[in-house]
Amino acid sequence: MSVLGIESVNKPSFSLTPSFVDGNLAVKFSGNADMAAMSTLAVYLRSVHSEAMQLGVGEVTVDLTELYFMNSSCFKSFVTWIESASSAGSSAYRIKFVANPKLHWQRRSLEALRCLADHIVTVQS
Amino acid sequence: MMRLAFRPSVDLISSTRRFVADFFDGVVIDPDATSRVAMTIHELLENVFKYSVDGCARVDIALGDREEQKVVRILTTNRASEDRMLELTQRLDELQGAEDPLKLYYRIIAQSAKRKEGSGLGLARIRAEGEMDLSYVVHGDEITIVAETPVEVAQQP
After folding, report:
1. Torsion angle of alpha carbons B64, B2, B85, A39, nearest 10°?
2. Quick one: residue A88, left, alpha or beta (phi over 0 = left, psi -120 to 50 = alpha)?
3. How far is CA B52 from CA A33, B8, B55, B57, B81, in A?
4. How far is B32 from chain A (nearest CA, A)?
5. Beta-carbon separation of A112 and B46 below 8 A
6. A76: nearest CA in chain B?
7. Which of B10, B43, B105 lies closest to A112 in CB terms?
8. Tens digits of residue pLDDT in A3-27
């Protein structure tokens, strides 16, 4: 049984793989976050938030190096998550996005997310 | 010019985005511009999928000229309900009139966190992240949204 309360998601065009190693919570995204992924992602990010709070982690790493596209609805799920993390008071944790510079959309989208809450969001390329 | 007339599905929207990206990859020099065009197509088609009254869309994609510059011009046409038409034209007017599209985009992002339904971000994302000039034409219950951005072309297609 997994130590984590969140499981992997494997859909035909989209997958999410969580890990918790040495106190570091991370989620790897692969594929395309489009309308088919929208509802799954919204629920999943709420679970990631709950898990991060429960584990008391200082940072969650979001690996997007194999996420080829994200639509605005999925982007909004990240906005909601960042707002939740940001308003968690003393339990607030940081969110680190790991980007792929070859996927050009990521630069602008992740910069927008960073600007939303630059005290907790960082982007690594 | 490329014209597609179809009823977008979730899978078709993604495959259209990939097709457009592959096509412009050989035409436009800057891969960032290709990425912006592909994102724009995707967001516009999702709008049609979600809000068109009959689910049908006409998409025109062209490489054209504007003041001695090459531009990629994307037009999507669909029928919309009265409420949706009002919402769309108000948002497009707001985006067209914005002195700083990025600043407006960040404000809309912050507002979107409170929305229960829809993101309300698609067109603002096209304007700010896609660096597209946006305009529209309304004929009865039909709206054509025009997105346009300057590009540097490798050669005449």
Report:
1. -120
2. alpha
3. 22, 10, 5, 8, 8
4. 5
5. no
6. B119
7. B105
8. 789 999 999 999 999 999 988 999 9
- The domain tally of chain B equals 1
| Domain membership of residue B78 as a residue range | 2-151
In three-state secondary structure terms, A26 is: strand
A117 contacts on B by Cβ (under 8 Å): none
How do residues B39-95 score in pLDDT, each as one tens digit? 999 999 999 998 899 989 899 999 999 988 999 999 999 999 999 999 999 999 999
Question: The CATH number of the domain where A37 resides is what?
Answer: 3.30.750.24
Domain residues for A37? Answer: 9-124
Cβ partners under 8 Å of residue B74, min gap 6: B37, B40, B41, B44, B59, B60, B61, B132, B146, B147, B148
